[in-house]
Known about the structure:
Blueprint: E1 3-10, E2 14-18, E3 32-36, H1 38-48, E4 51-59, H2 63-74, E5 82-84, E6 90-95, E7 104-108, H3 125-130, E8 134-138, H4 139-142, H5 146-161, E9 165-169, H6 174-177, H7 181-195, E10 198-200, H8 203-208, H9 219-234, E11 238-246, E12 252-260, E13 263-266, E14 270-272, H10 280-294, H11 298-312, H12 324-332
Parallel strand pairs: 1-4, 1-8, 2-6, 4-5, 8-9, 9-10, 10-11
Antiparallel strand pairs: 2-3, 6-7, 11-12, 12-13, 12-14
Amino acid sequence: MVDKRRIAAFGEVMMRLQTPGFQLLTQADSLSYSFSGTGVNVMSALSRFGYSTSLITRLPDNPLGEAAIGSLRRLGVGTELIERGGRYIGMYFLENGFGSRPSRVTYTNRQESSFNTAPADAYDYDRMAAELDVLHLCGIALAMNDGVRLHMRKLAEAVKQRGGTVVFDCNYRPTLWGDGGYDAAKPHYERMLQLADAVMMNERDAIHILGMQAEAAEREGQLVELIPAVADRYGISVIAGTHRTVNADNTHSLRGFLYKEHTFSFSPERSFLVYDRIGAGDAYTSGIIHGELQGFAPGKTVSFAAAAAILAHTTAGDTPMSSERDILRAMAEKAADVER
C-alpha cells in the first residue's frame, strides 16, 4: 500500500545506549547504541504501512547528527524537515529488567541537546504545515522547556489552520517534570488537548494530570466515566489508550480501547512474553493513526493497534518493525509457529 498523505512528528532524536543482556551499568564494560524517540518510532512504523513520513527536529552538525540522520533514513523516515544546529544529542542508558527487577532508563545531557536548545526561529512553521496532513506531538517533548512548548503550539496551530489533523500522545513522564509534577504539567497539557483531534491517554491521565474525579473505584469504570468527559471538554474526536497488567509469571496482559462518536471499542485482552518493552506504546499509537486514516471500523482499529503493540514487545530496540501484514496475521493467530 502506498498512501500519498504526508505525516510528520515533532520530537527529539535520542541516542539509546544499552547494556548487554540483563547487565546493570555497574556490571557492563560495553554498550550498544541506536537512535530512537517517540516521533522516530511512530513515523518509522507508519512508513512501513506505506505512508510518507518525516521528522521535524534539530540535530547537531557533527558525526553524531549524521549518524542519527542515517539511522532515520534506514527506517524510512524523511529527513528534509530536520534543522541543524546546537552541539549535543540527548542520550539515555537502558538496563533491561528481569523478573522482579524492572527495566531502568537513565537520561543524560537532555536539556542541552540541539532539539531542546532550538531558538525561536528554528522552524518555518507555515512551510512545514503546508506539506502535512497529520502532525504527531508528544508529552515527552512537552516536558522539556518553554521553548519546545512554543514550537509545539505554533506547529499545531499552523497545521490546524490548513485543515490538517493533530495527534497528541500524553506520555506523561514523572522524572521529566521534576518537583512540579502534575501541577506544573496541567496547563501545558490543557493547551495541547485544545488543539488535538486525536489523543492517546487513559483515565489515569485524566485523574492525575487534569485533576478530574471519578465516582468509580476500578479502572474500567473510571475510564468509561472520564474519557467521554475529556472528549467533550476539549473537543477531541478520538481518544485511545491501553490497560496493562504485569502478571505473577512475568508475562504481560494488554487490552486496548478507543473512544469515538460517543462509543467505546475494546480489543481482546492478550497475554504475552516481553522481550523489549520500550516503544510498544508508540506501536499502539501508529496502529490507531493507521486505522483512522484507512477508515477501519473502530473495533478493527483498536484490535490492530493492540496487536501492533504486542508485536513490538517481541522486537529488540525501541522502533516498531512489523508490517501491516505481520499485524493482521497476529490479530488472527493466538500462537506463533515457524513461517515457511
